[in-house]
Amino acid sequence: MKLILITDSFPPVRNSGAIQMRDLSRELAKQGHEVLVLTPSSEIDSSYRLSECAEKYEKGKIQVLHLKALQNRDIGYLRRAISEFLMPFIMLFRLRNSHFYNDRFDGMVTYAPSIFFGPLASWLKKKNKCKNYLIIRDIFPQWAVDVGILSGSGLPFYLLKKVEYYLYSTADIIGVQTSANLNYFNSGAVNNLTTVEVLQNWLAEGGNRPCTIVVQKTILAGRKIFVYAGNIGDAQGLSIFIDLADKLRENDTVGFLFVGRGESKFSLKQEAIARKLDNILFFDEINPDEIPALYQQCSVGIISLDFRHKTHNIPGKFLSYMQAGLPVLAVINKNNDLEKIITNNQVGCVTTSHSIDVLLDFVKELTEDSVDYNIMGSRCKNLYEKMFTPSVAAKQVSNGLV
């Protein structure tokens, strides 16, 4: 099939969404499909820029069409909302000026976030008379209400709900992260003609680039490292780990390493400095191909989700930890399916209580001399192979578009 993938994140952007869509497009190409990725970019100088995937496939191929758009990262919420609202219309205008405008496609995949792709997805679906598989990773604006970023009763929320539901109306199939999210869509968010199913997250094997972060050359040398690599934002609720590091300031066997970007990074770093904590370090995001080498220097991966979340997700970083054989220390919201996954597969410690005392006990449990990291690592890797490979996701998506 000839497929269109619509996403607001694709390399060289460095976030979990970009990595997921890169991995999905590669797997679809491996399975013989021709893939055209449509993605906005504020970095290019021309109206659009086409790039070809360097990998060679027996039948399939990947082309990436970067369409000039407004900046929508590392800016204030109001500017970001305006930018994302205009994004699908700007992308459609750029697409009309490209030589792909008259091409016909057999199916399309839309990735959310962003929820603003509705107009673009609707136009492409009607033009090509094809199905649209909508991949939902974050249920927005609900999560923003849950964590207090947005009021659940004002005009902005009302407008965003209209945008959200319009996007859903363009989908023939919606793939959500966990079974816990099915209730949200069964409560009237979609019409009876739309199929909603669980599409597990996925992650391909990482690269083998040497890591620019060398723990042995930092103040954390010689310690068992608890690492967090990913978005450092409001939705993660990471401030609890500043409190945890504070409680462990006298423990010279444990260190905390945070790698990434996000709106909460500066405030968390300043808080660590204010408390004079020497057991925690912050680094800027690194190339995704460096992540495996980073994890080889660490003992435990950190998962953190704000306790106020009422929707559920399995973060991409959890997959990367499982792939690398890193057990996890997870602080998540109640009733999240991730709790059962971690507990049933014995791949770490998880709590929904957001209690410092519980976390202290978990740190002790995960760093005891009796812990066999090889056994725990094998469990992690087995779980990854069973549930989270791109081949499983790509087959499910392509089968839905037939």
**Any low-confidence stretches, pLDDT <50, length ≥5?**
none
- What number of domains? 2
CATH architecture of the largest domain: 3-Layer(aba) Sandwich
Q: What fold name goes in the CATH topology slot of the largest domain?
A: Rossmann fold
Largest sheet, order of strands side by side? 3-4-2-1-5-6-7-8
**End-to-end separation:** 9 Å
Helical proportion, percent range = 25-40%
Reported for the largest beta sheet, the result is:
8 strands, mixed
SSE-based structural type: alpha/beta
Radius of gyration: 21 Å
Number of helices: 14
Element-by-element helix/strand order: EHEEEHEHEHHEHEEHEHEHEHEHEHHH
Q: What is the typical, i.e. mean, pLDDT?
A: 89
In words, what does this structure look like?
This protein is of the alpha/beta class and 402 residues long. The protein folds into two domains: 2-199, 3-Layer(aba) Sandwich (Rossmann fold); 215-386, Rossmann fold. Helices cover 39% and strands 19% of the residues. The chain is built from 14 helices and 14 strands. The chain has an eight-stranded mixed sheet with strand order 3-4-2-1-5-6-7-8, with helices on both faces. The protein has a six-stranded parallel sheet with strand order 11-10-9-12-13-14, sandwiched between helices. Helix 2 (77-96) packs parallel to helix 3 (118-128) and helix 3 (118-128) runs parallel beside helix 5. The radius of gyration is 21 Å and the shape is globular. The termini are close together. The mean pLDDT is 89.
